[in-house]
Amino acid sequence: MTGSNGGAGGDVARLGGARANDSFKPRAAAGWDRAADLEKDPALVPERAETDVPAELRAEIERQMAKYPRRQSAVLAALRAAQRVHGYLSHEAIVQVAAVMGVTPAYLSSIASFYDMLNEEPVGRRYVYVCTSVSCHLRGAKEMYDAIAAAGATLSDVNIREVECLGACDMAPMASIDGRFVGPLEQGDVRQLVADLSSGRAPLPGRGLSDSDFRLPWNADEASSARDGEHRLLLEDIDTPGLATLAIYERRGGYKALRKALKLGPEKLLRELEASGLRGRGGAGFSMGKKASFIPKGTMDKYLCANADESEPGTFKDRLLMQKDPHRLIEGIIIAAAAAGANRAFIYIRGEYEYQAGILDRAVAEAYRKGYLGDRILGSDHSLELVVHRGAGAYICGEESALLDSLEGERGNPRLKPPFPALQGLYQGPTLINNVETLANVPLVIEKGADSFRSLGTERSPGTKVVSVSGNVRRPGNYEVEMGIPAREIVYGLAGGPPPGRSVKCWFPGGSSAPVLLERDLDLPYDFETMAEAGSMLGSGGIIVVDDSVPIVSVALRLAKFYRHESCGKCTPCREGTNWTVKMLERVDSGEATPMDLEIVAQVQQNIIGNCLCVLGDSMAMPVGSMVEKFRDEFERHIELARERADVALAESAVELAPSTALGPA
Q1: Prior bond to 419 cis, omega within 30?
Q2: What 3-state class would DSSP assign to 126?
Q3: CA torsion sign, 635 to 637 to 640 to 641?
């Protein structure tokens, strides 16, 4: 899963869920357990002519519906438009959207209750969402949130809260302030941040990802060229000024691969992609060419979905590619669609990536104007319509079948398989789903040839990989390396290793869902096969480093809370297993558990793996199980120390509450 972009540390909720002072509820509890209101009118479609809808809102909803074969696909865009107009999704707002779309308010409420960025109660027109997910947690995000919340307590109409991973782990600790990613934050920034909010200014100028002069502090005095140990293909021109525009992209050789691909034709394209050995860069690592070959031939509508829902904690590579080189993704989509015979394509981008979605919208419009999209592209027989589709905050939508349900206008629940998307996917038609980085590699494969691509990396893991490194390292960021490079060269050579005086305790090789490995495993080659043989996985390519200053119990608990919150609740092993794991780890953290409880925790993780509708439950069970297995002694010590602290605190309370035995005056 990507995931995202993408928990519940303390009372954490992702965008649009419980506010900071509310008690935490897992996602599964949102909506389904509410008692029916028998006083409400029956669920009927409001009369369009009798419903007063602001003209601008009506026009925006109709514009969005026109993009899709099915009007319900525009539901997230319609609800977000109504939320912008009304401030939140009031009953009036829901009825207005229902009237324009020709659906029931009940349907819209069921959608709004699922997605975290949709608010059914007033939460404030402005917001400061502080990420406290795994990578930010490792860099003091909880303390940062507490300081901002305390200093901003008197601000009116500003919603300050903790949220889950925003896909900006390289900026940790960070916050999304009215959609603008700001970081890395320091305690000294708090007063200025609150003062800027109070005065209506954009907080901390120059510190936002979208600011023209933004640079990460550890890169501020260095050139943007590749570091020793990198092998840049996708990132070769990434910092070229204006690369996001069509003119500069074409000047750098953009869309030449498309012209070559259209001359080759679908059959030769498929053979070239399969011969390259290009494997999916989103998590599963399946052959991209083989996956495309599963799409049946014929004249029916076929679809391609670019999975840009990058929500996996520790992963932020797709954000960079879309933000700085959007036309490479678009060119890859057009070529992949030509190979699979798809005539409609969608980029499903996580809702939190507002800035990147705007860049994609402009790039798609440029491609249409130049004839790279639309009917008979560059005079060929290939036609393609492309839509940028924004999510609304749900990690589960990174799972391919949940993504399809969400794109169709439903709650993002995973589907039973088979049938698989290649045969029966979006709108029940054949569908190819690929990750952003995977598709961005396609123009390279076609332009330079399969043999050139295979000449890099290893035999079974060819090419390069963009690796996102975060957590306890000196230079978090994205680094493009040749597959098979020792992981130590990535963590120490490129990312600078842990802070001075610290060492690596453990690391996640492929995002938060990968089982952890130890410091000695850093000497292993970083490729799909070796990571699997070591008992983990390369996954999304997000390396999260945990140093020896961090209690392992806090990492396991923070991770479990993320997956508990992100569970859609559809299947029992995931819904109950994630919730139960959090409760047991809380007992461990407080000292209430026993060593026997650790055996039960480990056993429950094994019972979750392989028994869920999708891999979300496994994504918690695998890393948590690996931490219990590899750090059993530390878990037991944590229980004993926590119990001793609790006993001391109880004794001190008893002394304070005991009646005085001193004699009074004679």
Answers
A1: yes
A2: strand
A3: negative
Rounded distance, CA 621 to CA 607, Å? 9
Q: Which fold has domain 464-550?
A: Ubiquitin-like (UB roll) (3.10.20)
User: Which residue in the block uniquely carries the two structure tokens 């997000």?
Assistant: 542
What confidence tens digit (pLDDT) does each residue in 594-617 have?
989 999 999 999 999 999 989 999
Parse the chain into domains and list their residue ranges.
31-112, 246-454, 464-550, 553-645
Rounded distance between C-alpha atoms, residue 76 and residue 73, angstroms: 7
Please state the rounded mean pLDDT for residues 176-198: 95
Sequence-ordered list of residues with C-beta below 8 angstroms from that of 257, at least 6 positions apart, any chain = 331, 335, 442, 443, 444, 446, 447
Cα torsion 550, 554, 560, 564 to 10°: value is -130
Q: 553-645 has which CATH code?
A: 1.20.1440.230
CA dihedral sign, ordered 123, 129, 134, 140: negative
The residue written with tokens 């009953």 in the block is 91
Residue 630 tokens read as 């590899």
- With beta carbons less than 8 A apart as the criterion, state whether 470 and 493 touch: no
pLDDT at 663 over 70: no
Cα separation, 652 vs 657, whole angstroms: 9
220 class by beta-carbon count within 10 Å (0-12 exposed, 13-18 middle, 19+ buried): exposed
If DSSP codes are grouped into helix, strand and coil, which group holds residue 588? helix
Q: Does residue 136 sit in helix, strand or coil?
A: helix
292-343 pLDDT per residue, tens: 999 999 889 999 999 999 999 999 999 999 999 999 999 999 999 999 999 9
pLDDT at 221: 65
User: Rounded to the nearest 5 degrees, what angle is found at the Cα of 85, between the Cα atoms of 83 and 88?
Assistant: 35
**What architecture (CATH level 2) is domain 246-454?**
3-Layer(aba) Sandwich (3.40)
Instruction: Please report the pLDDT score of residue 13 as a whole number.
Output: 35
Q: Which of 282-286, 302-306, 459-463, 584-588 has the lowest mean pLDDT?
A: 282-286
Locate 26 and state its tokens.
């897992």
